[in-house]
Design brief:
The chain has nine helices and 19 strands. With 395 residues, the chain is α+β, with helices and mostly antiparallel strands. An eight-stranded mixed β-sheet has the order 12-13-15-14-16-19-17-18, with helices on both faces. Strand 7 and strand 8 form a beta hairpin. The longest helix has 27 residues.
Length: 395
């Protein structure tokens, strides 16, 4: 059942109290004379830190537990008291390949990829040495932009002020962090949007934010869409993993995108209860999109034959978007049904609806990510409205 008592205006205060109570635990740190390295912030991630005999810093990066699909996250802060020259910082990934190109920030808010001239990869791809600019008293280094609880609250909670969007808790994470959902008024047909099951998958989060802003916007298309369809969006499914700098899993060491069906974790179980509430109210899902990131932009979908004689939504949707996005590279990759307990398989098996994994490339151009998300949202709304109209008025 949705915990609607946590709606605004009390919601921001409640969230702040809960987040303070379950802050990320202390992380290893180290220092060497005129500098110090730490990960004592939300999203911070390092396993170990040491200074070698030459005064160089070596940061060890390891997963939170095994087995794991390797997404080697890191986020650290370098503080300097004396700009004595460039500092060499080695990121040691152990047995894992370095997946993410390092990003740098002076404030933890604005990020830029480090220039290639300042990054040296080891021959086996399992370490990177960074040459850092000595001019900054504080430098943040991370695998991707930091998009933590505060980033979500900054854009998600104000949605509650819109006339037809409410933001409320639908449950709590393993550590007690609030799980938030943004939803529009009840309709018989529901579009479900999920995000951030895997903590490092930031480009998917960037796309989902713009996608939602488009669907919740004031454009005539968006208003018509919300008159016909309810939107239920949970953009931060794994707040504990995000806060603690996990590579893949939640606080309990479980991949949430392998828990759809078992529902052993509080995060997926809470969303299942939300679905049960929708069903009891007479609503039914018609589409599910789950936002992720991987090495290149792509969409995992069902195969057209899964829908029999019905038109294949994914092929039509992505085909329309492609004509408007000549500069944004993405692929459509239909997959046969499998027993893997991910969201795509479970939602299709449960509701026989298009259930699509929206994957954004790790290093995709950020402007392209934003622009394409607008197009994908617009074409989704247009196509669903057209199909709804054809059912209402088949002649």
């Amino acid at each position: 059942m949705i915990e609607s008592s946590y709606r605004s205006p009390a919601l921001p205060a409640v969230c702040a109290l809960l987040l303070a109570a379950c802050a990320a635990p202390p992380q290893p740190h180290c220092g060497g004379g005129d500098f110090a390295i730490d990960a004592l912030f939300d999203g911070g991630g390092l396993h170990g830190c040491r200074i070698d005999g030459d005064g160089r810093a070596i940061v060890e990066l390891r997963p939170e537990n095994e087995p794991i699909n390797p997404s080697p996250w890191y986020a650290l802060r370098l503080s300097r008291t004396d700009a004595a020259g460039p500092l060499g910082l080695t990121l040691d990934f152990g047995d894992f390949d370095a997946r993410y190109w390092p990003k740098s920030s002076a404030d933890g808010q604005s990020w830029m990829p480090l220039p290639e001239s300042r990054v040296t990869r080891s021959a086996d791809g399992r370490a990177m040495t960074l040459s850092l600019d000595p001019d900054r008293p504080v430098t943040w280094i991370a695998a991707q932009e930091l998009t933590t609880d505060a980033w979500y609250r900054d854009w998600l909670l104000p949605l509650d002020a819109l006339h037809d969007v409410t933001v409320e808790m639908f449950g709590s994470s393993a550590a007690g962090r609030p799980l938030l959902v943004a939803r529009t008024p009840a309709r018989r047909e529901v579009v479900l949007l999920l995000g951030r099951q895997h903590p490092p998958e930031v480009t998917g989060a960037l796309a989902m934010r713009v996608f939602l802003q488009t669907v919740f916007g004031d454009a005539p298309l968006a208003r018509r869409f919300r008159e016909r369809f309810q939107v239920v969006a949970a953009p931060l499914m794994n707040p504990d993993g995000v806060a603690r700098g996990h590579w893949r899993h939640n606080l309990n060491g479980v991949d949430l995108n392998r828990d759809w069906g078992p529902f052993t974790q509080p995060e997926t179980a809470a969303f299942r209860r939300l679905l049960a509430t929708l069903e009891r109210d007479g609503s039914e899902p018609v589409l599910m999109l789950d936002f992720h990131s991987t090495r290149r932009s792509l969409f995992y979908t069902q195969v057209p034959e899964d829908f029999g004689e019905s038109p294949d939504f994914a092929t039509a949707w992505l085909g329309r978007a492609r004509t408007r996005l000549p500069g944004f590279e993405f692929s459509h990759e239909p997959r046969e049904r499998s027993s893997q307990a991910n969201s795509k398989n479970w939602f299709f098996a449960r509701y026989a609806i298009p259930a699509i994994t929206y994957e954004v490339g790790d290093e995709a151009d950020r402007e392209g990510v934003r622009d394409s998300a607008v197009v994908f949202a617009e074409e989704m709304m247009t196509l669903l409205l057209e199909r709804a109209q054809s059912v209402t008025d088949p002649g």
